[in-house]
Every structure is written in C-alpha cells, then in structure tokens.
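To whoever picks this up:

The parser on our side crashed when reading a file containing two proteins. I've narrowed it down to the boundary between the first structure block and the second sequence. Both blocks are reproduced below exactly, byte for byte. First block:
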Amino acid sequence: MTLQGANALVTGGSQGIGEAIVRHLRDGGARVAVLDIESAEGADLAVTCDVADEKAVMHAVGEVVDAFGDIQYAFLNAGVGALAPLLAMPLDEWDRIQGVNLRGAFLCLRECAAAMVERGTRGSIVATGSVSGTLADRAMAHYNSSKAGLASLARVAAAELGPHGIRVNVIAPGTTDTPLFRTTDAVPGYRDAVAARTPLGGIGTADDVAAAAIALAQLEWVTGQVLAVDGGVSLWSPIDIADFLPDA
C-alpha cells in the first residue's frame, strides 16, 4: 500500500519516535499533521495540543480534518516517563504519566476514530506502547501500568471499530535512542548492560521504530495486536538456565 496522497496525524511528533514517524510518512508522500505541546518541524500542519486536555484534542483533531478533509492514518505517539518508587510517588506524578500516556491516547483515539467513522474512512490507528507494559520495572509503576492499559485499550478499540473498517494496533518499543532514553545516561553502565542483553545487539533507533509503526499501519488484515520493536531485548530472562551452563 502506498502512502502517496494519504493524510496522517501524529501526536508527539516534535522529537524522538514521533519525529521519525513524521519524516518517514512525508518521505512516502503522505500529508502529515502533528499534535504536540512543542513546535514540530517538517509537518504540513502543526497544532499545539495537550493530549490530556479533552477540549484541546477535540479542537485539534477537528482542525486537522478541516484542513485535510479526512484522516487515514493516526499515530498516537505522545508519551512521557519518569522514575519514582511506589512509596515515594506523589499522586500528581501518577496522574501526569497516566494523563498523557493513557488518557491522552484514549482521547486522541476516540476523536480520530470518530472522524474516520463519520467520513466512512477505512483507517488505521497505531499507538506507541512499550515492552514495559508487560514487565515489572521498579520505580516505573506509573509508566508500566499506563502502557499496559494502552495495550488493553487498543484491543477493545480494535474489536469495536473493526466493523467500521478501522484497524487499531500497538507498537511496543524497547530501549530506543531517543531524548527520553538518553536521560538514563546519567546511570553508569545502564546503556551498555541493556545493549548486551539485546539479541540483535545495541540500542534501537527512532527510525527503526518508525519503520515498524508505518509497516504495521499498512497491514490490512491485522488488528488488535501488539508488536514488540525492541531488537529482542524482551526475550531476556533473569532465570535463563543457559546463563549458568559453561558451554551455552
């Protein structure tokens, strides 16, 4: 399927994975609108929007539809992360992470899907989750639970929206060299340890993940799925007996 002439919306498209998705879409010939609280370069239309704000999302999606006529592809990529152990986590920090990662994804999914249904568009929605949605990362309960919830949201949405010809899927990146991940460089040895546990070796790039997101968006007989885009890092097991066998 060609992207030439398609209309796409990307949330969180100003940097990292979102910026790479925007670039890949435009290279493929699509028109791209970005919803972000920061300015976005390279988009055909940039709308300032806090995805956790219902009225802002409704207005922003409406602005995109007015400008483009419809939305065929929506990439729900806006996300934030932080570290905080449960016993020291303030409620407002829990709400901040959940607000962007899960509430924001729900609002954008609802509004984009409504626009597709209203116009009879057989569209595709891809949300950016995380392999952390199936893991137990200490100090990341707010982040992990938001990504687990996002995967569940997408599966329900896929079931509800399938009869309208709308596909909903999730990409689940692992460690990816983005501005968010680079904050972990303050932790000595972390990057090297993760790279060593990745079967394909090293740390993924935003372009790696963007390519997977766009490929998944174009698969016409796939919906309700979560695709790990992590170089295999989620295959690592702390109880893998091969680690203790001399000839393994």
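<<boundary where parser fails>>
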Amino acid sequence: MKFDHNKINTLGELKKAGYKSRPIKDELRDNLREKLKMGEEVFHGIWGYEDTVIPELERAILSRHNINLLGLRGQAKTRLARLMINLLDEWLPYVEGSEINDDPFDPISRTAKEIIEENGDSTPIGWINRSDRYYEKLATPDVTVADLIGDVDPIKAANLKLSYADDRVIHYGMIPRANRSIFVINELPDMQARIQVALFNILQERDIQIRGFKLRLPLDIQFVFTANPEDYTNRGNIVTPLKDRIGSQILTHYPKSIEISKKITQQESAIQKSQSDTVSVPSLALDLLEQISFQARASEFIDAKSGVSARMSITAYENLLSTAEHRALVLGLKQTRVRMSDFMGIIPAITGKVELVYEGEQEGAAMVAEKLLSESIRTLFEVYFPKIKKLKHSDERTPYEDVIEYFGGGNEFVLATDINDEQYNAELKKVYPIEKLVMKYQPDTLKEDFPFLMEFVLWALVEYSRLSKSKYETGFEFKDLFNSYLKGAIGGD
C-alpha cells in the first residue's frame, strides 16, 4: 500500500492511514515477490548473471538472509548491493528527532520513546527516501568499534550531567544510524578480527556493547558483505563465528562470453559524445579488445588469484578511442576509424590493472601487455580466417600463399600512423592479395571495416611467423620474414 508522505505528518495521521510497519528483510522480500510476479527486472544493468548470481541473490532475499558476495575484483559485487535499494519502499516514516530512524510503532531508542510518550498521536513524523536508506563502509584495518557501533561522548555527558553508564551519552556509530536500512561492508576480510567480533551480537542477538556496558538495541538492518577470495590468504579472513551468522554466501564471476563483456564495456565506459561522433570502431576491434581480458585471466604471467577486473576492458576501450581521437585532432580530421596500430595506445590501461607473478615481473608489465595483444590476435584470427598450419607439404598452397609471395618478392610495406583514413585505405590496397583474402573469407564485412580486417591479417601473419614487423617512430613496417632475417644477418657482419 502506498502512502502520500506529504499529507502524513503525525503519528495519529499515520495510524489513521492504516500504515503497518515491517522489518526491512520482510520489506525487501515482499517487494521482490511483487516484482517477480510482475516480471520486472530488479538488477538492471547487470550482465552475465541472469542465470547464476542474480537468482541466488533473489533466493537469499526471499530467505531474509544477510548476504556475503564473494568474488574477485571487478565482478559488480558493490553494484549488486547498491541495486537492492530498488526493493525498498519509496518512503519510510520515522520518529522525527530520532538519530536512528526509529519506527513510530516500535521505537527502540530512549529519545524516540520519550518523544512518543510526551506527544502521543501528535508525535511528529518524518519520511526518509529509499535512496537515503543505503550505507556503505570500506573495511580497512583502521576501522574501529567506535566508527561502526558508537562510543561514549564525554561532552554530551558533561552537558547533560549524566554518568557514562547512561545510554543518552552515547554517540551512535554508522551501524545504529543505518537502522531500517541496507548496510554494506566492502572487503570484509580486511577488517581486523576484533572488529568483526563486534558484529556478532548485532547480527544474531541484536544488542551492542559500548565501553563495557550492554545496550539492548534491536537494530533492524539488512547486512550485505563483499569479499575477495584473495583476501583470505593474503590479508586476513572472515572469522568463523561471523561467517556462521551470514545466511547466504554467493559466488560472483567474470563474463563468460565476449558478447557479454562488450555490453558491460559499452555501458560503463565514460565516452564523451564528441569522441563517439569522431571515432568509429569496427566490430572486430571490439571483439579483440575484450579478448585481451580473457587472455589475461588465463595468462601464466598474471596472478589468477588477484583476477583481472572488468575495469581493464573499460579503461582500455576509453584509451583506444582516445588514441584514434588524438590522431583526428592532430590531423584536423572530422572523423576517423580505429586501426590495429591504435591498440598500442591501450598498453597503459593494461599495465596498471594486472598483478604479475614472478615470471611476469621478469618480462615487464608492458611486454606482458603486448603478449596479451598478440595472443588475442591469434585467437580471433582463427575465428575469422582459416587456421595457419605450423607445417605444410612442399607442394601445398595455403590461403595465405599469395600474401607471403607478395612480400617474398622483395615488397616491403610501411603503414604510417599519422595519415588520414583515405591515405590509410589507399596504402592497404597496395597489398592486393590481402584484399582478395578478406573478400573471400569475410565477404559480408562492412565496406568501412575492410581496411581494419586487412591490417588485422598483416598483424596476424606476424604473430604466426609468416611476416616480420618492425616499429618505427610514426608507423610499422612489414617484410618477408626470411629476407628480413638475411638483411639483419648481413648488417650484423
């Protein structure tokens, strides 16, 4: 039942309207039931969890559980928790003057009880919006019991001339102030064990202890915790009695397909309209960008326990567009399309997002990033074009023979990065065997994407050791591998 919060200002009016209060877990459960019956989407904008995480989270809410979301970084744990506010009532009444959002029909603080006792049905009622019923705290080693639970305020005790044993001298911490709200503690294992212990009674017995005396305060809170499995070994753990009081532990995961990853990247990237108007991105470039994250999660150089956040793809995409945009601005172009060479601009977005193991440290972060790009090119090349065999019979002609013979005939190809799109397209057309190859195996490719696929083939042939590629200040040079080796050997003499 909905109530007009603008017309209800006293406890008497609230009673007359027929309002009935309910615990927050019941509120979340009831509203979720209604949304599920109506077929409404609760966790909008979360991709890849439709058949895994979200049903488990919904079941936990129906069970009225406190929840722990366990997963590696960048798996939308906090996003899920924040979206739970959509299951709260839009407006909630509370006793005006209460520090802890006291329920007018079931006050728990002395202040609220005294206000109601004094005013009766004339007790002033305030209304709190669902957006203000969400609290979030990052668990860091410096968090104290006073921060979360509260402490005795000596100034208040002196002003009121009360002893420290009187509950009226308490300055409430974040958790009591989140009464009748969702309270999220991120990275729970990072919190000191003695602080975690302070949460025991709140979750189970719903009382708190401050400065040695117990205060019966049956708080009404929906707790959501997030944790990273890495934390259990590297920094700390969730103490067993606290874990036992958390009803449901839900495992999150990374996107399982490139298509889902692309949806997440497109949704989350901070792209200005001026960028999207200036830079066009071929579909293969989007796939290649996401494939880099998949390769990183399987790489021997990267710590799998640390994970590779979805934020890596997001920032890499932003860098990719910025690289192309930079070229357009320098050359005075109104529009441009992403090129393979632009992927060198995403290296800084990768190096800052991955935790390297010892072997990776030896290689260097930038080199590991380039290896990820190389592996991604090889992986996607076989999706678009015939596989390149490692060995072949002497009389066997492969689909790439004409291209290799073109370079074997002494042709060298320089593709500059500081040229406009018209020049870029014209340069690539000079390597006519590649254009024929793309037209044969990818005939449905958009006309504007053909140049990108042609350059992609060049980079792929380098990765399969069929051509050589050397970088210079303003571009890349592609040569026959054998001729390049001979020239290097002669030069070395």
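After patching the parser it read the second block fine. Residues 258-384 form a domain with the Helicase, Ruva Protein; domain 3 fold (CATH 1.10.8). The chain has three domains: 11-251, 258-384, 401-492.
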